[in-house]
Every structure is written in structure tokens, then in C-alpha cells.
Amino acid sequence: MSSRILSTLVASLFVVTTQAQINTQLPDTYKVRPTPYTVTNPAQFNTDITVLDYTVVRNFKEAADRPEPNLSHILYVHKHFRINTQKGADSSATILIPKEDGAEPIYMEARVIAPDGTISQITGRLRKLNGADGKEFWTIKTPALTPGSELEYDLASLVYDALAGADLFQEDVPVVHARFRLVTPNILKFDVKSLNGFGEVTSAQHGQTTVFDVEANNIPAFPNSAFVFPKPLVQGVSFGMRSFVNMASYKRETVEYNWQDYGEREYISYYNIDKNEYTRLQKEMEGWLFIRQRKSLPLLIYQVEHYLKSIIKYEPAKNIPDLENLGTILKNRMANDLGMVRLMAAVYYNLGIRAELLLASQRDELPIDTSLCTFYRAKNVLLYFPELNQAIAPTERDYHFPNIPPMWSNTLALHAWDSATANASVVKTNFMRVPVGSYANNGIRMSVDVKFSPSNDSLLVNTTQLISGDPEVTLKAVLNTPKINTTQVLTSNLPLSPTEMRNLSVTVANQDWSPTMISRPLEVRASFSNTSILKVENNGYSIDLRELNRMPVDNLGDLPAAGQPINITFPFYQETKISIALPAGYKVKNAASFNSEYVYKEGDDEVVGYRLKSLQSDQTFTLLLTQWYAQTDYQGKAREGLEKVLRTLLQLREVKVEIAK
């Protein structure tokens, strides 16, 4: 049994001891005889939970003395909470500890400190839990807790193949004290950087060891909001190795880490194909009739991507040659991520289409930092077409040109391409931002036709939605999920709730990607009757259009705190046309209330805005509302402009259409 597997088995049982591992790094962190915390600043304890101490130590020196292959460092985590409310006690029945990639626990100790000072050791198993978003956690079951109780744990792990990383200490609750330490042998040179004002980095040498320390007190809570990505904004520490001394070398040479070398290695792994692979690919492409037809470059790029994603089955396994070699991929019709990128890059090369490499970060994660060798953040692979300033995502099955995962757009990416010289071809690199598609490509156009029933006591409604771009990708992916209830999905995307729609009929068209057309919006049609938005008032009628005019937010209180950016997933627009056939002899008496406009510009660019217009002719009243959000991130004046648009539209939603003779 390997030592790595053994360490995992040992970690499944708690080791009951008073010698916590964190104390071997920072003595007396996990106190032998703790006493309940004395609250001196009540403002820090008006949340359900307060973190009293959060300490992380990463020791590369100790790992260098251990025999495990590919072991990079030992990670020590100490966390100490105080439960302030019953809600906090209820939510702490299980502790969730995020599982770090490549980390295997070897030691765990946890305890509860009651308000009267009684100490109870927690015993049991450390279990792994898979989260809904694909992330993994270690879980600990705790005994029943009461307000005033404290919960404390100490976790030690072996971390493999990780020479860079980050620890984030700011959470959605206050943190009284936080500390980070990095211990390295002097033959390894690291850069350590404080994030978002966490604290000052200090370093000191102790013989053959260098120690970095960062410490902070009284870190405020970071408020939760669905409209801000917290990771790039919270306080923490980032680190990365920049060089090491090659002890196996006779001269003990220093080997430097840098983005150029990393980009070159990655480029070669994706673009270098041997003669046999090239010959097999050429033979395969001879049978592709669609590439012989004359067509625009965007359409050809789309059709190649669509075809390959249609015929090649995805297998997630890594380091399997048969899933990465072009010959076996084309024979078996199976590829992993590396194989799929290699195949697409080779096909575009064969067609004379320049496709360069982008290694992108993700907007809701820490961005690439060009001053640190944090290569792990450049993990999302794109093929970039400089002639079009657009990209494709070969590994993402649900996305087709010109759409890529929106969270990859507008991020800093490592850009690699080959450049021919007089004697050879060399790989060059730089950094660039991943292009963001225009908001005009992402939208929902909704047409709503409203008629009164013969008895004028209900409304007959017909809707048509044309959905394009990123919203289209999202809905298509859901609709094409195996065993999905299509009617239920479509109904959830209609303007009213299911209970408000009687005699509902709903259909969908263009839910599959076309092999011949880039742009073919998803179309959803529905018809139903409704009584809830129609009211009889003052010898007339009123219609509440609130639900028919959809908004990105329903309450400005949902937005992030002042001073923070507002992040949206992708730029987009919404167009709504509502036509109401009025009963004979009736008119809309407040039509003027539905004429309004506001646009916030930066230079000539319309960053955010809306236009609302009403038309009344004969017995038809028509509302036209267009709203657009042209950026993904709104700060400063742009945020003020966005808030003004949202505030005005929310107010306009409250205005009912008043119909009278």
C-alpha cells in the first residue's frame, strides 16, 4: 500500500490528542487548556457566527524531508469559531472544509468549548462530500451546539504537485484574527503577495530555511450578493515559486520559473503532432464534404467545431495516450480535454486558419497575476482566431462559435502562438484579455399579444420568445439534458408563474445546434389564459404588467454593498413588445406614463440604458421596452448609471395600464 493511500485511510479517523499539529508550527495556537472567548467588541459578534482565529501554514521544508513522490508541502489549517445565535448553532451541525486539489488529510482534531468552559472532543469519521458545483468538501458532524459555544479544529494534509496557491481569509462573517505562514528551504525561492489589504508580508531566514509571515486583525464580513464575485475582492495571500536550485546538477544550477516557459510547454503539448497523426488526419478530412464548399470564415470555424463535437465522445480521463493521439481519437471517436484541443487545433491548421492558444482564468476565481508564477489559474483552454478577435472553447461541449463560457470572457489570459524566423519556428507569449462578445449577440426578444376574453373577465395571452447567444446556450444545455422534463423547463422561462397560466400550451423550436447555420435563435411559443393580472376598477380595467416586464433584479437591496463592483455573467439585452387588444370603446388613459428613456455613456459607448415607448391606435395599445447592459463589470460612474436604470425600471413596473371608456 502506497504511503499516499495510507495517509488517506489514517485521515478517516480522528486522532484524539492534545498535541495539535498546528502547534508544531505556531506553538499554543490550539491551546491545551482553552477558556471561553471574552467578547470585547460586540460589533464583531452581531452575526450568527464569528471566526475567532483562522491560521494557515504551508511548510515546503518539511515536505522536502519526506519520501512521498511529488509531495510539494504540508498544509496545516487551524480554525476557531464562536456560535452567536441559535441559527448559527443549527447551521454548524456539520462543518464543511473545502478540499484543496491534491491535498490528502493525515491528521484531524476537533473540539467544542461550551460557554461554561467544558471541553468536548469530537470523534468520528472525516468524510468527503461532493458539492453541487463540482467542488469537494471534507465534512465533520458536530454535537448539538448552543449560542456562546465555540468550535475549533486542526487539520494537517499532504499536498501534492502544488508550487503555487492562495489562501483567502475574508468570509461572510467577521474574522477576529488571521495568520498565514510559508516555510521554504532556501533552495526554493518564492514570491508571497498580500491580497486586497490583508496585511504586510514579512520574511526572515533561519539557517537553511526562509519563513514568510502575514497577519491581520478584525477583518470585516464580506456581504453576500448574487451580483458580485467575491474571490477576486476578498483579503488573503497568494504565493508562487519562482526558482529552485537543481541539486541533481553538478553545478547546482538555478532553474527559473516564468510565464514564457510555461506558455511554450503548453503550446507544444497542444500543437505538436507527429507525421503519423498528420497523415491520418489528412485522410480523415478528405471525406468532409462541408469543408470543400466556399463559405465565410466564421461559418467554417463554426461547422468544424460543431462537427467534431458531434462525432467525438468526451472522456474525462487524463494521461491516456489513446485519448490524446489523433490517430486513435479518429479511429475510436473518443478524446479527453487534451485530445480534443489537439484535434481542433490540427484541423484548423490544415485548413489554413490561424488558431492561437489562450489559457484563461475565470471571472469568479482569482485572476492570473503576471507578477507571480500562478500557472494553475491559467486553466481554461481557448483557441483564438486573431483575424476575427473571437475564440472557441474546444473542451466545452455545450458551447459553439461564437459563444464561449461567459465566465471566461473579459479575463486576463496567457496568449501563446508560433512565429516563424529565418531558421526555425519559435513560440511567443504575452498576456491579453479574452474578447467579450457584443451585448447585441446575447438577448431575449419577447412578443406578447393580449386579448380580452369574450366576457372581459380574463385575458388570452400568446407569447413568442426568441433567445440568442449566451441565454440560448444555457437553455439549450438544460433542454438537452437526459430525462429532462421539457415542458417544465419551458414553463419556468415564461413570464408568469405556472399557477397563473390556465390552459397552457408551450412549444419549442431550434433546441439543437444547426450543422449549417451559426445564428438560429431558440424559439419558445406559449398560449394561456390569465385572470391574476387583470382587475376591474372604476368602471374600467387595469392590467398589471409587472411580470411581463422582466428585470435582472427585483430589489435594489440585492445589489452588492456600495463601493463594490456589480458583476453580471454576460452583457445582454432584452426587448419586450406587449400588444393589448382593447375592448370596443375603451382607451388607455395613462399612456403617457409609458414613455421614458435613459442612457449612460462612456464616450460614444452606450454602457447601460433603456427605452420605453407606448403607441395607441384604434383598439390596440402597444408597449415597446428595450433594456441593455453592455458590460460585465460596473464600477464607479458606470455602477451609478446601472443603478439609475434599474431603479427607474422597477418604479415603472409598478405602473398599471389603466383602461377606461
List keywords for this structure.
signal, about 650 residues, 8-stranded mixed sheet, 11 helices, Jelly Rolls, Immunoglobulin-like, disordered N terminus, single chain, alpha+beta, globular, 36 strands, C8orf32 fold
Spatial order of strands in the largest sheet? 5-4-8-2-1-10-13-12
Question: What is the mean predicted local confidence, pLDDT?
Answer: 91
Separate helix tally? 11
Into which percentage range does the β-strand content fall? 35-45%
Q: Give the N-to-C terminal Cα separation.
A: 87 Å
CATH architecture designation of the largest domain? Sandwich
**SS-based class:** alpha+beta
CATH topology grouping of the largest domain: Immunoglobulin-like
Q: Class of the largest domain, according to the CATH hierarchy? A: Mainly Beta
* Integer-rounded radius of gyration: 30 Å
| Main sheet specs | 8 strands, mixed
Identify low-pLDDT runs: 1-17
Helical amount among residues, as a percent range? 10-25%
Overall outline: globular
Number of strands: 36
Number of domains: 3
State the assembly state of the protein chains: single chain
